Amino acid sequence: MAFDEMKSSDGGVRSPYQAYENWLLSVPPDLLPRKNEQADALFRRLGITFAVYGDEEGTERLIPFDPIPRIIAATEWKRLSAGCCQRVRALNAFLKDLYHGQDIVKAGVIPKAHILGNGLYRPEMHGLDVARDVYIHIAGIDVVRTGESEFFVLEDNLRSPSGVSYMLENRAMMMRLFPDLFTRHHVAAVESYPDQLLKNLRSVAPAACEGDPTVVLMTPGYHNSAYFEHAFLAEQMGIELVEGRDLFVKDKLVYMRTTQGPKRVDVIYRRIDDDFLDPDAFNPESALGVRGLLEAYRAGGVTLANAIGTGVADDKATYTYVPDMVRFYLGEEPILANVPTWRLEREDERNYVLEHLAELVVKEVQGAGGYGMLVGPTSSKAEIEAFRARILDNPGNYIAQPTLALSTVPTLVDKGIAPRHVDLRPYVLMGETATLVPGGLTRVALREGSLVVNSSQGGGTKDTWVLEDDPC
Amino acid sequence: MLSRTADHLYWMSRYMERAENITRFLEVANRMAMSAGRDRAAYWRPVLTIAGGEAAFAESYGERSAGSVIEFSVLDPANSSSIYGSLRAARENAHAVRSVIPSELWESLNSTWLETRGLDGPRLRDQGLTSFCEWVRERSHQFRGITYGTMLRDEAFHFLRLGTFLERADNTARLLGVRATGVKADSTEADADDQMHWAAVLKSVSAFKAFRTVHGDNLTPVTAVDLLVMRDDMPRSLHACLDQVSLILGKLNPTAECARLAGAAHAQLHWGRLDQLLARGLSRFIADFLTANNALGARIHEDFLLA
């Protein structure tokens, strides 16, 4: 039985949900379905959609929104927040070290081969100093829960984590649909996220910046699946939303083309992968990037957020070393644990995994979005065998984890309210320090029994409430 | 502002204005064809001068009839200048700049598009052409109302309005060109058919009441043209459009070449006399006006939108 965040095993209601439960009992049973329909119509009108790759029919879809909040107590949040920030501080220190002295390799904590053999390691970054030593300006830390106090980090997203717009829009929607709920609960505000982000981005302007730094958000364009979020964040921060073709580099400085002529750009919050940033330096086929951008970056003419080469720290093989990084760089014990993970590059671990495929979750080291993974317990024999062949082809490309009994939260489904599995992605921002807005994106697997929460695989989202005070 | 953003804003409002004006052409054709004794199909031809062109129409539809012209100019997704194509383009341009425009504006354009997308021939017939046209105009009024009522008067607003007035000047000129042949400065007489035509034109641009106020019952080609060309207090007249275009360009950059072109075109209407402008006939005047208007559009592109 999975841990339910609302109903405790003895049938009672856990304290963070007590006030909600009382409210739920006081409203007519058709209220939630009606509000849900309203939300659907509103989201569609607002155009809060995402594009699904490889889906010609409906290239723009709504991410299903669930009207029942996921509620986190103040004390629970305190620990989660400290744990996520600690993790990002360690990962940032790791990136600085990795691209400079590599002390962690010298100390024998991480094997050198692991780093140099990693396709996401960027030799171009070696020896380069970045503004304020910040590499990870924005991180999304995926956390799962399996018990009253068992939280695990499932994954670190350090390239350009998406989803924060849903955190903000879901809150706005809940306030619109259920204003009375917010008078009954002290829910911590999440609305300051764009301000905090802009403040941080301005604080990392490069040395070459003269006067007030100009920050822009760079998008691959409106065909990108996360375009809504790019436009939303640019609007919230009041900065230009640019595409590669709007920018050019001259004398190692970056400019945007405006109606009043060229204008200097100091900080680029880029929502585009390293490979597509600069056709001169990376993928020559890229039509999305800007020629000479890497050279300008290396010369200190512009700051990129996140820095180039952060991918080496968030792949699933590096993940296994993060608790060691916390001890090595911060001299602290990790507040949040990793999920136990087998590395298939090691023979003994590989043999164990191959014998237990039907019980485990196997993931590609650099995969994302729920693609390229095997969930043993819900897969057919044929699927498992097909995946076994892929593993044997390139074992180093995979890791395996136990199938976790993710916690459940009550969710509105066709037949009423039923428990569904959830995860949580809070967003850590790094500037002078690491900070975390009290909230995050809760993703929910809408299919009964499913553990896959990705929106591209039929997952939905919930508003995440962090309570200001624990109920006494 | 990014040149690309300005370009999207400009085209967003041009396409919205075009969608509105196609409905105005359709209304003229509809009224005239309903009252005509024979050769009704001929009255639908002018619709094509704004909604996609005769050549493109002939290629995919061949024979001209009320039904085929309506299908081509209202719902044909392959025709980028149909109402369908225009609303789609307006929405796509808005999508690309949704962080710049008021969110109500995006919501309005998006829901206009979502409704139009769900429309097909049978549903359109069910709703009726006239009520669909009214709906499109209401959406366009809403578009204008939101921009006018909520936007900061900055560059974004200026480029958006620039698109509106340049497109409107083009469309009004084309509407006047529908029955321009033979109209000269001395065309101060009108037979019943002429009167019906010019009344339909005036009604289509919601100018019939204004006409009565200005010219009383003296409905002739020259008085109708006077209202829609020379009167600067008539919001859809060529003069009023160029007032706005030259005013906006003066704000954006008074020394740009496009500002000079707009000023010169504006001066002709502001200081010129109708009998002089019509000295070589209305057809010639309209043709020259459209050429100059196109050149102005191209120059605006060069001065601001390419950068």
What do you see in this structure?
The complex is a heterodimer of chains A (472) and B (307). By secondary structure, chain A is of the alpha+beta class. Chain A has two domains: 15-206 and 302-337 and 404-466, no CATH class; 340-402, Dna Ligase, domain 1. Chain A has helices at 18-26, 31-46, 74-98, 103-106, 112-116, 164-177, 179-184, 193-203, 227-237, 293-298, 311-314, 322-330, 347-355, 381-393, and strands at 65-72, 138-145, 151-157, 215-218, 240-242, 247-250, 253-258, 261-265, 267-270, 303-305, 337-338, 342-343, 360-364, 373-375, 398-402, 408-413, 416-425, 427-430, 434-436, 441-445, 459-466. In chain A, the strands form five sheets. Chain A has a five-stranded mixed sheet with strand order 1-21-20-17-16. In chain A, β9 (267-270), α10 and β10 (303-305) form a beta-alpha-beta unit. In chain A, α3 packs across α12. The longest helix of chain A is centred in the N-terminal third of the chain and has 25 residues, at 74-98. Chain A is globular and about 65 Å long. The relative contact order of chain A is 0.18. Chain B has 307 residues and is mainly alpha-helical. Chain B folds into two domains: 1-151, no CATH class; 155-307, no CATH class. In chain B, α5 packs antiparallel against α6, α9 runs antiparallel to α16 (282-305) and α14 packs antiparallel against α16 (282-305). The longest helix of chain B has 33 residues, at 3-35. Chain B is globular and about 55 Å long. At the A-B interface, α2, α9, β5 and β7 of A face α1, α5 and α6 of B.
